[in-house]
Amino acid sequence: MSLPLLADLAQQFALLSFLAIGGVNALLPEIHRRVVESAHWLTDTDFAQAFAIAQAAPGPNLLIVSLIGWKVQGFLGALVATIAICAPSSALTFAVAHVWDRFRDAPLRRAIQQGLAPVTVGLVLASGFILARTVDQSVIAVGLTVATVAVVLTTRVHPLWLLAAGAAVGALVAV
Amino acid sequence: MADDNIVSANVAAPGPAAVPPSRRALFVGFLIVGMQGFGGVLPFARRMLVEQRRWLSEREFIEVLSLSQFLPGPNIVNVSIIVGSRFRGLSGSLAASLGLMLMPFLIVLALAATYAQFAAIEAVRGATNGVSAAATGLVIAVGIKMAHPLKGVAWQIAMAALTFVAIALLRVPLLWALAVLAPVSIAIAWRMQR
Lengths: 175, 194
Known about the structure:
With 175 residues, chain A is an all-alpha fold.
C-alpha cells in the first residue's frame, strides 16, 4: 500500500467531482487525460477494459472510477477513488438542495440551466469521440459503435441487449 | 424541515407517502435501484420513487432530477442525496447513497477480478472489446439525444460545438475549458432572456 498514491487518487478524483457537470460520462475525456496521458496509471487498453466492465455492471456509470482506483491501489484504492468522486459533489448537493427550491422561477436560475445545457451536450459528445478513438481499434469495433448509435436512435431496445450483442460479436470475431 | 415537505407533497399531488420513509427504507429502496440499473440507473430510480414507493410525485421527481443534473457529480448519487435529506436529513442522505453504491461497487470489483482471471482467453478479450465499442455507441447516442432540444437555437449549438472542439480536438484541460465556457454560456443565456 502506498499512502502518497492513495492521497493522489483522492485528490485527483475529488477535484473531478466538482467538474462533473453532466455526470461522469461527460468527465471521461478528462479522466483519460489524467490517468492515461499524464499519470500513466493505466494504458489505453486498461482504460477501455475498465470502461467496458463498468458498463457491463449494474449501477451508476461512475464505477469506471472505482476500477481505476482498483488498478492503482487494489481494494483500498477503489474505495478511496469512489468516495473521492462522490463526496465533494454530494456535500455541495446536500447544501444546495435546501436553498434551490426557493429560487424555482428566478431568472438567474433559468439562465444557469439554459447556459449549462449546451456545454453539457458538447462534453458528452466529446466523451463519445475520445472513447471511440480509444476503443475502436478495428473495423468491426467501429461498425459496432456505429450500429449501436443507429439502433439507439431509431428503436427502443434496452441498452443491455446492445452490450450483449457487442459481447457476442466481439467474442465470435476474436475466435 | 422534512415534515413541511411531506405536507406540501400531499397537497401538491395525491400519492406520495404520508409517512416519511425510515433510513432503513431509504437504504433498501436505493439498494434495489442500484442492483437494477444496467446501462442507466435513472429509469429505475424513477420507477421506485414515483410508482412503487410513492416517495415523490412525478413533478417532484422532475425537479429533483433537474437539480441533480445541474449540480456537479454523478446525477443518480445526487438524486439519492436530495431524496435522503428531504426525509431524514444528513443520515437519510448517507443511508440512501450508501444503499445505492454498495452492491454496484462490490459487483464491479468482482467482475474485474473475474476478468483478470480470464483475460488471456482471446474470446473474453474480444467480448470486452465488443462491449466497449457498443458502450461507446451508447454514449454517442445519448449525446445526440441530448442535443435535440438545442435545435434551432444558434448560440446553444455554437456553445456545444465550441465545447466539443475544446475538449475532444484541442484537449484543453476540463477545468480551464469550463472556467471560460460555462460563464460565457450563462451570460449569453442571461442576455437572451430579456
